[in-house]
Design a protein that fits this description.
The chain is an alpha+beta fold. The chain has a single domain (about 1-125), classed as SH3 type barrels. Helix content is about 30%, strand content about 20%. The protein is built from 5 helices and 7 strands; from the N terminus they run αβββββββαααα. The protein has helices spanning about 1-20, 95-100, 120-125, 130-135, 140-150; strands at about 25-30, 35-40, 45-50, 55-65, 65-70, 75-80, 85. A hairpin with an 8-residue loop joins strand 2 and strand 3 (about 45-50). The longest helix has 21 residues, at about 1-20. The radius of gyration is 21 Å and the shape is elongated. The relative contact order is 0.14.
């Protein structure tokens, strides 16, 4: 039962990520480094131009670890890590700080989520009972989990539950 709830949460996160990608249209950014623009979002795709460090660009779309960008000279695909999106940092900052445990620490962490499901894959998803049963088979009981954690040198840490909305 808990595993199915987990799957639902993951699916909801995927939908939110897909929706945020749709909102990215015509977002501006800056090239963090010189790179090659590609005709397709693949490392071995043909070159469609060059990206110059600190060059302004428009972000047209995202696919996995790739962004489709438009510069003054060319349009093409470039690795996500080669681009700094404009306006990042303050949107939903307070909420994200609390959610990530970074509130008040001053420590900034940059991550890139590149694995996930596309909007088309989410729309085409079908329930697969065999895979759900397979997922249930990965579950272990509390004593097995504690034994595994102890063998890895981990110690127990009690964390209070968040209070629910009233």
């Amino acid at each position: 039962m808990k595993q199915r709830k987990f799957i639902h949460i993951i699916a909801a996160m995927g939908i939110l990520i897909s929706a945020s990608t749709a909102c990215m249209a015509a977002e501006s950014g800056t090239a963090l480094k010189a790179d090659t623009l590609r005709t397709q979002p693949y490392a071995d795709a043909k070159s469609s131009g060059a990206l110059v460090k600190n060059e302004s660009l428009q972000i047209l779309s995202k696919k996995g670890a790739w962004l489709q960008v438009k510069t003054k000279k060319a349009t093409g695909w470039v690795r996500l890590l080669s681009v700094k999106r404009a306006g990042t940092g303050n949107a939903l900052k307070g909420t994200m700080d609390v959610a990530t445990g970074r509130a008040g620490t001053g420590k900034v962490v940059s991550t890139t989520g590149i694995r996930g499901l596309s909007a088309e894959e989410l729309k085409a998803a079908k329930f697969n009972e065999a895979e759900m049963n397979k997922l249930d088979g990965y579950a272990v009981n509390k004593s097995v989990a504690q034994q595994f954690a102890t063998s890895g040198g981990l110690s127990s840490n009690q964390t209070a539950y968040l209070k629910g909305a009233k």
